[in-house]
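Ex. 9. Protein: Signal transduction histidine-protein kinase/phosphatase MprB.
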Amino acid sequence: MLTIFSLVAVAGLVLPLLATTSQTRTQALLLSRVATLDRLAALAREMRDAGDLATVQAEASRMTEVYGEDLLLVGPSGQPVLSTGSLDLNDPGVRETLASASRNLARTTLDPVRPWSEPQHLLARPVGTPHDLAGAVVLRVDAGRAISAVRRDWALIVTGAIAVELLLLELAILLTRWVVRPVRRLEEAVVGLAETPTKGPAVMLSGPPELRNLTRSFADMAATVTRSLEMQRRMVADSSHQLRNPLAAVRLRLDALASELRDPSSPRFAGIQQDLDRLEALLNDLLRLAEAESWSPDAIAGQSVVSDVLPGEVGAWRLLAAENGVDLAAELAVVPPVAVSETDLRQIVGALVDNAIKYAGEGARVIVRIEQSGADAVRLSVVDDGPGLPAEQRELASQRFWRADQHQSSQGSGLGLAIVDQLVNTAGGTLTIEAATPHGLAVHIDLRTAT
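Predicted structure tokens for Signal transduction histidine-protein kinase/phosphatase MprB:
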């Protein structure tokens, strides 16, 4: 917009200046030639009355020598009386010009001289008075010098206009950068807040006052959001820590009570122990999720060699898979190290395999697959051929505490995939849940390779 405005402003100044320069050169040329015509017409009338045209001839010849322009003098009958140069009655436009002069209509105007104008023009002045016309004087004006002067003037003006426009463009670029730079910083801060909400974005106040006020308001809002999220995480973490102690005391007392019961293996007693196990698992998952959400990519920077982690991790789950009637297999290609710590990678694989064994059902087959999906990307997939999930449930599967209707009675806290999703996102990866072919569920984890 600033560029268009500067172009319009410069054009509004340059175009009138070009026209004025052209008019000035044209007027200067016309005034000198009209004065010459008037003098020659006056001399021709005097010499005609005296019967001697020698003075007119000398004056015309001298003018031709000085300006290089031809002149033609005709008498009352329209026949040439004297001529300098090559101008005669057969030249283009001469007869029309003489016809106007014979009617006492002088032709003493020129079109504005432009760089592309024709160099030759005809001017005419009648000799005598309207009641006693004694002929006419025709002058072929050479506007070449005026055209050259106009070209030189226009070139200087256009060069100056280009220089001014370049200066205005530079100023526009600087002004645009001054305005846009804080907007870009604000955009980066918004993206940073979305990626790492626990770390308040650092923004610099710059630019126009309106943008400074907007940046200041955003910084205040980001600080409030960060503080609120931090308080929520602290509450979850503190609650988990605080609940662990009384829960541990309850378990100790329950274990001590087992020796006093008549039947320690009774279903009620076993149910209480299972409830305690679930509460402990839930608190552990809540604490782990709170920790994962509070980490930043820099805080968890690390790498792990997949070939050193996955074989042992898959082997550790084979016994549980066999107990549940699930065939657990691995297809492990050689891939570069991934940009996630070994501990997090083990937890990611463990959570995915645990879910697959738990929900695929007896007789299902679960495959843990690792492959390189790009120049700097590795894909970890856990695929089963169980019943799978409908599309609307797959979209909800990574939400906290979510469970499918058909799995409400199964064990677990409903936080496994939520923790995996948080760990993967923090490491710069992505989690994708899709249907397997011909049936079942496929969970894909795309991770960056370590640099």
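Check your answer against this statement. The mean pLDDT is 79.
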